């Protein structure tokens, strides 16, 4: 009951603590400052990206290098950096955070082909979601896979071939309008405006069989007006408030501004029209169902994409879990409207501009000749694709004038990224890969990659279509991981542009129709056009040329607006302007201090929306603060878990700290899924940090790529051949030339096994037949792991607790049997570890002792390995102790530099082996002797002894020991019935669906065959309960048999 009281005592004392609003405000403000310091200083310092080359001096500590990037045209600054520092660099972003940018083909292929490990940042998804909803552009993981699966049939070659008549219809309508406006004398046209209306009409007809008719109606149409406002440079300019609203959508995003107003209005218009289109189409599809009321997947042929998508989504042979909701289908319509017209119209505008330059008129003439060579006014898709110069023009334009300048990704886990071009770190060491930590941003410079001189040559920035007609003149272009060969414009991998085939054919059809009838040239050859980044890169007339045209155009990208500049646009500008510096600082500090408040609110929203709330489980909790944890702590041995599973089923949920829901399951299929997908279900952070405080960053306390790397090096140490080589050490310690206790004068002459026997004999003779088996076993296994693991003598059986290592482990592990509330909170919230506690002091002191001893052992072993002449090959890893094998494997000449462990990591493995190598073994042996000592099990003990005595060889091999059936059965039964690790915890790295072998009924009475779990929720696997459950082991599952 001690642990239960310790938890409840804290809870009971909280109302009596004199806390004022000043204490709360101070705590919140201190937390905000801690997070700011961690984000700006600690995280960048610990980031593995700091080893990459890159620009040094930042523009300011708030924006990093962003002002320089935003002030230049797209890609220019990055081009300079890549030329100076190499293809893979790091630079500073918001609040000095590090980010990586690369044009290394192998690195880009890694990011793009592992798209779900490198999703879009939350900031980008939020910004997209505000405009198009939760469509295929803004969702990730399983939602993206599911949506993409339904939408893929809409964009296949056969479907695009059926859409060609629509492309030609609108292209000829645009041509006729332009010819009418040009007349005989010619005219100046805003090609981008007209092309935008054309592509909007095309996506309406091709996508939804809906005629927006914007070519005729112009800006009198509300959709055209909404999209014009949405994509106008004035509404998407890079300013301070806009950036912060995207960066902190749930806080600063609530501040009213013109940008949010325009976005909200445009979203409402697009959603209303999308809903109308969807409802009309769904009614049409339902009316066309057969007598049986079903639609098959293969019955999805139709003229427009929405019809195909709705039919595929309503197919009777489609699983319910794979269907899109009505809201998701509506959001796909909005996505196709916005993404399906703006990119194509802007790309064609830039192409006409390129062909209108005086130096490129010969290209326009050559292309026109090729187009006029076709007799048909509406050639087929195959006929257009067979035109070599048209294809070269389009490819070259997509390469050198990509309207998508860049894209961003974010690492969802720690990872190692391979490189095709090595880099030198700040110490001059060459690396063929770099490490990236979870959460760090990645910048993929599409335009820079398309213009990389290492691939395309010194004329990479020039528009030269002939490069695509000269055969394999640029072989390295095959390394570019784009879905459209040779360019990155459409990206690649699972998140490649789903409509790239449609975009290509739409562009070719427009060019075919327009260039055959119209000749294009610039109205003023001296006019300066610059690339203005909105959602895409639009052509904008430079500011100084505006007056000469007599009309207004939007300004180019400017440097980030200062704080007081953007405040002038707000409704409360006058009040803000009158603030003193101290008052303004207080306002900013208060805004920062709101971060933890919003985090707490987000926590409760996450808790309320948890999919685990539908599972059955115990309702009444011990306290609001601790949930069911006090009851679990007060009843060790899995008793509570067994009661709950018996009452509610194999899969349940219960409450933990702050009422968070946890999943508890012993369903075999669910457990197998969680264990086999360990990357998606790592150990919780507080659990890993708790282990790291004791043994450092060893195999037991790391996850992700660090765990895989350490495991690769350590695996050879524990293979069958290596364990077989260690058998002589075991027997040498056990027999030592057949020495018996009566034959020697000193315990030091005995092996650990005989020392243990002698100690027990002396205790029995002196104090009677009662022996503390666990203490003796713990000391014996510690000596064995010292000898077999490191050829190091701890001599703990001889000196007992006089050994400082023994004392350290006793001090560290003893408090864990009595968990106090503060210990738990310090594990959950690392900053609280600054509060001194007995357990914290014991861990700190014990860690210092363990680290010192492990360091001494390691240095001796490393010195011995380095003393060996010549290199060390992996094949030469035969050694007598585990550490020798580990050190030699880590130093092997054929081990990649990136695969090696640092000296500190090897030292931490020693601590891990000491802790795990003696504590678990000694406790398991103690439980086995306890079971064999019970009166009802004496016959088992006798039978086991008889089998062991039947072995003639005093040093049986590993295979001979494993061939003893009853010994094997006794050990297996002990490990099953008395597992020393009662349970383990895992945390969901992402939203996931866990399959089950036995369907269960949820709290609403619905039968379920899978478990949905949200990112961040914890899974408890009750190992002891699983090992004893009657559904697997029968009614006698709790008996030692």
If you had to describe this structure to a student in words, what would you say it looks like?
By secondary structure, the protein is α+β, with helices and mostly antiparallel strands. It is built from 45 helices and 14 strands. It has a four-stranded mixed beta sheet. Residues about 1-10, about 235-240, about 295-300, about 545-575, about 735-755 and about 870-880 have low confidence and may be disordered.
How would you summarize what this structure contains?
With 1041 residues, this protein is of the alpha+beta class.
- Tell me the radius of gyration: 35 Å
Round the mean pLDDT to the nearest integer and report it.
76
H/I helix tally: 45
Extract low-pLDDT stretches: 1-8, 234-238, 295-301, 544-574, 736-755, 871-879
Inertia-based shape: elongated
Strand portion? 5-15%
What's the helical proportion of residues? 40-55%
Distance between the termini: 32 Å
- Most strands sheet: 4 strands, mixed
Question: How would you write the strand order of the largest sheet?
Answer: 1-2-6-3
Beta-strand segment tally = 14
